[in-house]
Design goal:
Helix content is 60%, strand content 10%. The N and C termini lie far apart (96 Å). By secondary structure, it is α+β, with helices and mostly antiparallel strands. The longest helix is centred in the middle third of the chain and has 42 residues. It has two domains: 120 residues, no CATH class; 136 residues, Alpha-Beta Plaits (2-Layer Sandwich), CATH 3.30.70.270. The protein is built from nine helices and four strands; from the N terminus they run H-H-H-H-H-E-H-H-E-E-H-E-H. Helix 2 runs antiparallel to helix 3, helix 3 runs antiparallel to helix 4 and helix 6 crosses helix 7. The chain has a four-stranded antiparallel sheet with strand order 2-3-1-4, sandwiched between helices.
């Protein structure tokens, strides 16, 4: 006869088992109810496109919470028709939510991917393919400084007579030159370094873990490589001097902003 009794009544034979199930189910109920509450409190941040699906998701979570509350209730009352009926409601809401999500999830994942790509693009110079000023600032803000072990340096590069090249040979020739300088900087950068175009004919190279002396040596190598750049049209002009660049180098210290480092390198340039 005991084997045929509802399981709720059987729980009463073991108070510790009863307490375990009551506390567990009520804790899950509180956790489930907290999720719809959080969605309600932050509903202004939910995009209108996904709001209907988020409401369905909140209803599903809320329904799950009620189901766990009924499980605790049934320990004493054994209303299994109510519990079974509510389980069917939860299953229906769950299946309908999943049906709605099947078309929305791919769009959300694609949107996230596009946002990641966009964030990267806004840190990149479209002409040269290296970083722009925003990218350099982001890199500088993420640097760690250990004065006793690691130094960082910033190289600032300014092409000599670039305006004259644009005026005489056209902006297309100037763009070719900027792209070639970008290639030089990429070729002279390690994986941990960052080459950037700050705008116009101004470039920068962030050297991570590089002392001022080492950066000076690297700057001289870059200057020579720029001087060796050959462009069709420019190299045929008899009145043209070799392409040259002025370069300034500064060290980076903790708390130093880009403007300060730029000013030091610009003064050196």
């Amino acid at each position: 006869m005991i084997a045929l009794m509802p399981h709720g009544t059987c729980f009463l034979w073991d108070p510790w088992l009863t307490s375990l199930h009551v506390v567990s189910d009520l804790a899950v109920l509180v956790a489930y109810f907290s999720i719809p509450l959080l969605l309600l409190l932050h509903r202004e941040h939910i995009d209108a496109q996904i709001r209907p699906v988020m409401l369905l998701f909140a209803a599903f979570i809320f329904s799950c919470g009620i189901g766990h509350g009924l499980r605790a209730w049934n320990i004493w009352h054994a209303n299994y028709w109510i519990e079974g009926g509510w389980t069917l409601v939860t299953a229906s809401v769950s299946l309908y939510t999943a049906w709605q999500l099947q078309g929305l999830v791919p769009r959300l994942l694609n949107t996230h991917r596009d946002l990641v790509i966009t964030r990267e693009l806004i840190k990149q110079d479209p002409l040269t393919g290296i970083a722009n000023r925003r990218g350099l600032e982001a890199a500088l803000s993420s640097l760690t400084y250990q004065p006793s072990a690691m130094a960082h340096s910033l190289i600032l590069i300014d092409l000599d007579g670039f305006k004259g090249i644009n005026d005489t040979y056209g902006h297309s020739m100037g763009d070719q030159l900027l792209r070639r300088v970008g290639e030089v900087l990429r070729g002279q950068s390690r994986a941990i370094d960052l080459a950037a175009r700050l705008g116009g004919d101004e470039f920068a190279l962030l050297l991570v873990g590089c002392s001022l002396t080492e950066a000076m040596d690297k700057a001289e190598i870059i200057r020579r490589h720029i001087q060796q750049i050959k462009l069709p049209g420019l190299e045929q002009a008899s009145d043209r001097s070799p392409i040259s660049a002025s370069i300034g180098v500064s060290n980076l210290t903790s708390g130093q902003e880009l403007a300060q480092s730029y000013q030091k390198a610009d003064e050196a340039l």
